[in-house]
Write a structure and sequence with these properties.
This protein has a 7-stranded antiparallel sheet, sandwiched between helices. It is α+β, with helices and mostly antiparallel strands. It is built from 3 helices and 7 strands; from the N terminus they run E-E-H-E-E-H-E-E-E-H. It has one domain: Dynein light chain 2a, cytoplasmic (Beta-Lactamase). A hairpin with a 3-residue loop joins strand 5 and strand 6.
């Protein structure tokens, strides 16, 4: 059963958490892993979403919509390129900008994006998410 929008801004912290909808076990496990990953100094934040739920934890709360749009565009572009070159369905996409990296992954019906500083290596994040 779907629930309404729930927003929680944690006092004393520099991030906001927004959840929408109900939970599934994979979503719950991913949210626990991402919360641990988020504690790393080089990780800016993450967006986790499924067909019925979403979780956002970003240090720059005023940029949530920008990060969400960037995440969606990366996922959409990755899928379009994979189709165009007959690569199958992409499991993950890594985009590196001048100052920030974005790792986008699909795990079942769940989509996640982890935003990190450029020097942060993504391999340990991928390993933590899939184990």
């Amino acid at each position: 059963m779907k629930q309404g929008l729930q927003t929680e801004e944690t006092a004393g912290n520099d991030f906001a958490v927004v959840t929408v909808g109900d939970e599934n076990s994979v979503f719950s496990n991913l949210s626990i892993s991402l919360a641990e990953i988020r504690k790393s100094k080089g990780v800016i934040g993450y967006i986790l979403r499924s067909n019925s739920s979403a979780l956002v934890d970003l240090s720059e709360t005023e940029k949530i919509s920008q990060y969400a749009l960037l995440s969606w565009q990366i996922e959409d572009s990755g899928q379009n390129l994979a189709r165009q070159f007959s690569l199958g369905v992409p499991e993950s996409t890594l985009v590196e900008g001048a100052e920030v990296k974005v790792l986008c992954m699909s795990i079942g019906e769940n989509r996640l994006s982890v935003f990190m500083e450029k020097q942060e290596p993504p391999a340990w994040i991928i390993k933590r998410i899939i184990t």
